[in-house]
Amino acid sequence: MLRHHLVRLATGARAFSQASAAAARAPHATKSKAQPGASTLRQFLEARGLLAPAPADARPGAPASAAQRRARLPSAKAKALALESRALREQVASQGDEAPAPAPAVPTDLPEIAALATARSYDLDALVRSGRLPRGWQWLEDREALYVPAPPASSDALGMGSAFLFRAGCYVAWGMAPEQKAALHRDVIAGVEELPYDVAGDEAMEFVHLPAEPTRVVGDLVVVGQPSREWAGRARADASTQLLRARLAISQGLAASARLSVQEAVLAQYLRSVSLMPEQLEQNGKVPLPRRALIRKMGTLLRLRQHLNLDRDNFLDDPELYWDNSHMEALYRHTCEALDIRPRIESLNAKLNHCEHLLEVLRALLTEESSHRMELIIIYLIAFEVGMALVSHEYVPTPLAVWHALPSLT
């Protein structure tokens, strides 16, 4: 039986070699007329009945589709691949459908959007009651902001020479001259400032009016034009109201940057006050601050962190107005991206973490020093108690006992 199988195997191998040679002599044969030499040895032997067929799932099949490959990946990687392929398809489709629009011509001398953070907050209700607002003002964003034409009020439909006042203690002036901004702060805002800053925070961007272009942020330039087609199709307000909302979103991004610059200045001053402590600790070998001063430093640090991350007007949360207005949210976020709001917040938090670690080390050293002093006091008390016990039990003669013992010795 074994000999019979060996003979069949040898015969099959010889036939395979002959077929391979024939296939080599006919290189231009089509696939439909290809000899067995074009297949693998295993397929040839299976066709001749000399080898048992392999299971179907073990045979090599066609390459898996993209969806099947992503199904075998972890969910995060699969999602990244799906987003990447989707972005690529959209990019190819957009390139095939329409050519990129030419860059608009921009004049060299451009007006400015200036944001100034002068106080912790503004009492806008008191400002409205005071009657100091110029004509044409209006509430915006659920009474969280005021739109104010500059004194004297401009008749320009684009709102040139106007300002937005925010409860968070910042105002943003569009196209106003320096004397107009000074008059606005002196005559309108100064009386309603709560906890004014010693040094105001500021931020500025240039803007240009291009009626044929959509309103957007391009780098460090704000293009004021028409609303986007998507927003114009869904919004029911007129073009002037839509443009006012777009400028409000951009103004809030600038206001956030101005308020953040105040926090950066305060933290820079705080860092200067603690920057020499490691060197003093190295030179003197003792904590350079008493306990009360160290606790006050920690309180200042916690206040800075709370105002940056947890307060009502913190820098991490988007305004609630944009939750149901994607176009305003996009303008606000593009403005924040142009002004590097997120990296600056991360940098501030990293510096706060460093200061917190430094103060924790100093506090631990003070605690250790206090514990060492308490240990010494306890040791002194124990030694005193032992000495008193020795004297009271007359293990150590007192001078009075020696005096009484002298007559008996003589």
Brief overview:
The protein has 410 residues and is an alpha+beta fold. 55% of the residues lie in helices and 15% in strands.
Textual characterization of the structure:
The protein has 410 residues and is of the alpha+beta class. It has 13 helices and 8 strands. It is elongated and about 125 Å long. Belongs to the RMD1/sif2 family. One of its GO terms (cellular component) is mitochondrion. This is DUF155 domain-containing protein.
User: How many strands, which pairing sense, and closed or not: the largest β-sheet?
Assistant: 8 strands, mixed
Mean pLDDT equals 76
Helix content: 40-55%
Q: Give the C-alpha Rg.
A: 41 Å
Please give a handful of descriptors for the protein shown.
410 residues, alpha+beta, eight-stranded mixed beta sheet, 13 helices, 55% helix
